[in-house]
From TrEMBL:
It comes from Cohaesibacter marisflavi. Its cofactor is FAD. It comes from the Bacteria. Keywords: FAD, Flavoprotein, Isomerase. Belongs to the UDP-galactopyranose/dTDP-fucopyranose mutase family. GO terms for cellular component: cytosol. Residues 151-351 form the UDP-galactopyranose mutase C-terminal domain. Pfam families: GLF, NAD_binding_8. NCBIfam families: UDP-GALP_mutase. GO terms for molecular function: flavin adenine dinucleotide binding; UDP-galactopyranose mutase activity. This is UDP-galactopyranose mutase.
Length: 374
């Protein structure tokens, strides 16, 4: 069943692995390739040799979802441990909780307001003259008022995206919660956790099937084989040789910090102040609270964001207005490309959380299998 087809899956991250597994379970043989020397893409995790800490090699990845099917799927391949993301921010020498909640508001303004008092206070702070915010900046001013916006969002956004907040869409900020209680759980989703043995082991588990061949250190461009179908999770513009231009991405640089004991007492500390060159520091043993106390040493990373060059790893699609025309041209070509399905964060030029990535991969596999029956 299906074994007569030659199928290639470009990319051994969650998108590629899930599609490969779904097809393999139905009898299809697939070749999964990745130009890196490891699986799991930007979710790759490995133990740091000096400290023993499980390090998220390409920055922190926290699993959170409201999708029961996706939660059940990831639990099939690894043990998910309880983990709540509680982010802190150092602003002008003081530490606050994020997302902005009642504690943040009271601490920032030196008050002791009740939820209703805080709501009324934020309304009085917010810019009432902005009816329909178009930009990130306008959304921030209407959302929390100038003082909170400047303290927590303006500088951080400039560093993260490298552009004026007035040029970014309001939708980016609309995703962030504002709470009038003391809940500092960064996410609202009912299912949240961290894999006990890291993400790479989960992805390797998904790929562990007799019908799946995995070839690492192998680029799509280097293949000289023909395939009946390709699932492509690499950069959309790269597939077409960047022949009409490059889409814009941000990339990240990480500067390690090694210390004895506990460096910052929390997993993630944001630094929104514009004069601080990095965006945040992540201390990775705190992503595994069940084992954090067992490590005598610690490792943390300062995170710097910049525009992605030709030889850099693309992290975040910027999706500026001037990218829209180029993206639409590539999307039109992708839609007309026979025998190729473009999936994942890079293949669709969208920022996707892990749960959405897995959910979409399951759907893509399901649709492909259904089309073979038709």
């Amino acid at each position: 069943m299906g074994s007569d087809l030659r199928i290639c899956i470009v990319g051994a991250g969650f998108s590629g692995a899930v599609i490969a597994r779904e097809l393999a379970d139905k009898g299809y043989r697939t070749l999964v390739i990745d130009e890196r020397s490891h699986s799991a893409g930007n979710c790759h995790t490995e133990r740091d040799a000096e400290t023993g800490v499980m390090v998220h090699k390409y920055g922190p990845h926290i699993f959170h979802t409201a999708d029961e099917k996706v939660w059940a799927y990831i639990n099939r391949f690894g043990e998910m441990m309880p983990y709540v993301n509680r982010v802190k921010a150092t602003v002008k020498g003081k530490v606050y909780s994020l997302p902005i909640n009642l504690h943040t508001i009271n601490q920032f303004f030196g008050k002791a307001m009740s939820p209703d008092e805080a709501k009324a206070f934020i309304v009085s702070q917010a810019r009432s003259d902005i009816e329909e915010p178009q930009s990130f900046e306008e959304q921030g001013m209407k959302f929390v008022g100038e003082d909170l916006y400047k303290a927590f969002f303006d500088g951080y956004t400039r560093k993260q995206w490298g552009v004026e907040p007035s040029t970014l869409p309001a939708s980016i900020l609309k995703r962030l919660p504002l709470r009038f209680n003391y809940d500092d759980n960064y996410f609202n989703h009912p299912y949240q956790g961290m894999p006990k043995d890291g993400y790479s082991k989960i992805v390797d588990g998904i790929l562990a099937h007799d019908n799946i061949e995995v070839r690492l250190d192998c680029s799509y461009e280097s293949l000289e084989e023909d395939f009946d179908h390709v699932f492509y999770t690499g950069p959309l513009d790269r597939y077409f040789g960047y022949d009409i231009g490059r889409l814009s991405y941000r990339t990240l640089d990480f500067e390690p910090i090694r210390a004895e004991g506990d460096f910052q007492g929390t997993a993630v500390m944001n630094y929104p102040d514009p004069e601080v060159p990095f965006t945040r520091i992540s201390e990775h043993k705190h992503f595994a609270p069940w084992e954090a106390e067992t490590f005598e040493k610690t490792i943390a990373f300062k995170e710097f964001s910049r525009n992605c060059g030709e030889n850099d790893i693309p992290y975040y699609p910027i999706r500026r207005l001037d990218d829209k025309q180029l993206l639409e041209a590539y999307e039109e070509r992708a839609a007309n490309e026979d025998g190729v399905t473009f999936v994942g964060r890079l293949g669709t030029y969208q920022y996707l959380d892990m749960d959405v990535t897995i959910g979409r991969a399951l759907t893509v596999a399901e649709e492909f299998l259904a089309s073979r029956k038709a």
